[in-house]
Amino acid sequence: MTRRNIFFPVLASAMLLLLSACAGGIAGDPQLALWKREFFSEAREKGISHRTLETALADFTPIPRIVELDRAQPERTKSFEKYVTRLLSPARINEGRELLAAHRGMLERIGAEYGVQPRFIVALWGIETNYGKNMGSYPVPWSLATLAYDGRRGEFFRSELMQSLAIIDAGHIAFEDMNGSWAGAMGQCQFMPSSFQRFAVDHNGDGRKDIWNTQEDIFASIAHYLSASGWDEDTNWGRRVKLPSHFDKKLVESKTAKTLAEWQVMGVRQWDGAALPQHAGLKATVVLPDNKTDRAYLAYDNYRVLLKWNRSTYFATAVGLLADHIASKG
After folding, report:
1. Please, are residues 142 and 63 in contact by the beta-carbon 8 Å criterion?
2. CA distances (Å), origin 226, targets 158, 170, 287
3. Alpha-carbon separation of residue 145 from 53, 67, 203 (angstroms)
4. Number of CB atoms found within 10 A of residue 208's CB
5. Which of 28, 148, 247, 281 qualifies as a cystine partner to 243, CB 3.0-4.6 A?
6. Contact by Cβ (8 Å): 160, 184
7. Residue 73's pLDDT is what?
8. Is 269 helix (H, G, I), strand (E, B) or coil?
9. Sign of CA dihedral 252, 254, 259, 261
């Protein structure tokens, strides 16, 4: 055998050993193998099919980037002013108005069925995924399995992972199409799997709750979430206001809500300085997203519903403001 003929088999063997060693760094981890065995056993006991488990998780290895993103989350990375400037761009507002007009018939039917004003359905769609354009590209079961295995909030993500597999098992979406955010939020309305199980709707009756591609299901799922969470179609979310210079900041986001008439007596006015509108029985709390009195809002009960969707005051206020802009004529 020539030196050339000896060299290539040796090189090929070395390459195979190197690839095997690299893969074994994670896939060969006995702790991961044990975690998989235990999870597969629990999933089978809960009715998840062997086929779904094999398809979704047989080759699973944790995604380091997801762990980095989870651990690097700051409480607040930018001011509220910068946050709303980015999310409430003229382009997003104009597109929201165009989409509200384009889907008006469907949105009004769904809005009437669930008792939710169409502008809020469109606003949530716009804030969550920029009207379906930014749904995330991570495989949802792998994202959730990474976070469950990592253990920081292991039980929560283990439960979400189990429910994501049940969604695949039920035929709502295939594993290869189930993409979402690094934290496991899915579809054009960014539902976690548990929210999908509670609120997603097969509104077009095709047997699938498709929050990824079917407009009717997406709108109805958003509306169902709000309705089931206590939405009141007869009121707005809140309004921007001016606080008096002597305002007691201890009253900000307090549990004690006051009527608009009571806030009026305390010196609170509309942003343009006009008196607050009077609405019998409507109560509100003062919200300062940035803890600055020049960005103050009176928030109604619907605002609390938006906080159930996402606990961030930045998020809830931005949704309300986008809905206002979408409903206005410019």
Report:
1. yes
2. 26, 24, 20
3. 12, 11, 30
4. 17
5. 247
6. yes
7. 64
8. strand
9. negative
Burial tier of 255 (Cβ tally within 10 Å: 0-12, 13-18, 19+): exposed
Structure token digits, residue 301: 């009960």
Confidence of residue 21 (pLDDT cuts 50, 70, 90): very low
Contact 268, 288 (CB under 8 A): no
Sheet holding 269-270, edge to edge: 258-259, 283-287, 296-299, 238-242, 269-270
- DSSP secondary structure code for residue 251 in this structure: G
The answer to whether the CB of 178 falls within 8 A of the CB of 139 is yes
> Is 139:175 a contact under the CB 8 Å cutoff?
yes
pLDDT tens for each residue of 221-259: 999 999 999 999 999 999 999 999 999 888 987 777 999
* Backbone φ, ψ for residue 297 (5° rounding): -140, 145
Q: Could you identify the residue written with the tokens 């792998």? A: 142
Question: No. of H helices and E strands in the chain?
Answer: 15, 7
Write down the pTM of the prediction: 0.88
Q: Where are the domains of the chain?
A: 25-61+138-186, 238-299
